[in-house]
Design goal:
- The protein contains nine helices and 15 strands.
- The radius of gyration is 18 Å and the shape is globular.
- The strands form three sheets. It has an eight-stranded mixed sheet, sandwiched between helices. A five-stranded mixed sheet has the order 12-11-13-15-14, covered by helices on one side.
- The longest helix has 17 residues.
- The chain has about 280 residues and is of the alpha+beta class.
- The protein has two domains: about 140 residues, Fructose-1,6-Bisphosphatase, Chain A, domain 1, CATH 3.30.540; about 110 residues, D-Maltodextrin-Binding Protein, domain 2 (3-Layer(aba) Sandwich).
Length: about 280
């Protein structure tokens, strides 16, 4: 049984209903335990994930849920799920630190795949948990913000481009020095705190690039956003300039570069000489 895009959007809205009233509250920030993704889960993370599990169990579709807090969990009949190869790759709350502090930049990310690899992702939904805006895409059908089709910007490096920079703390100064040819060319740098939402900003033409050098970047954070960027005409590639098509697993982590099409050659030329 297939999960259509409207159902995935409704799941995201179900999370919004329980999470939005808690944003910025003390209750939201209560620390519980370390999640499967490696971070300490807070009350708000668990509330969001429980809402997803409840929605899926009611639908009773056999699938493998790959989620930030719980790790990997079969919903419905395990053998049927393996046979059907349906996987849902979810970050119930991307931008948890923003969410509990009341910083209005956090999201829920839901990617739907039939198969075992990133290229098998065929649907993606990212919902802004502050504004209720929904970004979504289906493979081969384009990307949308609410009901409007979106596309990456057509700015090149000579124009006023915005980008987000996400660097590991190890070798921070060296990385900044290596990236100085890029930093000097871009108009402004942003560090916003929700990778899923930033990928959607690129898809919508609000930003031009996202340079994420953190090897700890998790699949669940960006699985939906990657599809949305590509369907909006954007580019996403590894630090070596190759396509990223890894296994769908809670253990998968990787750095990446995302940009509009005009910046691809510039970013590759500079990065591959330095990183």
């Amino acid at each position: 049984m297939d999960l259509n895009i409207d159902f995935l959007k409704q799941v995201a809205l179900d999370i919004y209903k329980v999470v939005n009233p808690l944003l910025g509250t003390r209750e939201a920030a209560k620390k519980l335990k370390k999640g499967a993704g490696g971070d300490i889960s807070m009350h708000l993370d668990i509330v969001a994930e429980n809402a997803i599990i409840e929605s899926l169990e009611k639908k009773n579709v056999p699938l493998l849920l790959i989620s930030e807090e719980i790790g990997e969990k079969y919903i419905g009949d395990k053998e049927e799920a393996k046979k059907g190869q349906i996987k849902l790759i979810v970050d119930p709350l991307d931008g948890s630190n923003n969410a509990v502090r009341g910083v209005p930049y956090c999201s829920v990310s839901i990617a739907y795949a039939v198969g075992d690899r990133m290229n098998d992702i065929v649907k993606g939904v990212v919902l802004n948990l502050n504004t209720k805006d929904i970004y979504w895409a289906e493979k081969g059908k384009g990307a949308f913000l609410n009901g409007t089709k979106i596309h990456v910007s057509d700015l090149d490096i000579s124009q006023k481009c915005l980008f987000e920079l996400n660097l590991p703390m190890n070798n921070l100064m060296k990385n900044l020095q290596d990236l100085s040819p890029i930093i000097r060319k871009f108009y402004r740098i942003r560090i916003l705190g929700s990778s899923a939402l930033t990928l959607c900003q690129i898809a919508n033409g609000s930003m031009e690039a996202f340079i994420n050098l953190r090897k700890s970047n998790r699949l669940v954070d960006v699985a939906a956003g990657m599809l949305i960027v590509k369907e909006a005409g954007g580019k996403l590639f590894s630090l070596e300039g190759t396509e990223i098509d890894q296994e769908l697993s809670i253990d998968v982590k990787f750095p990446f570069i995302a940009s509009n099409a005009k910046l691809e050659s510039f970013l590759k030329e500079v990065l591959f000489d330095k990183i």
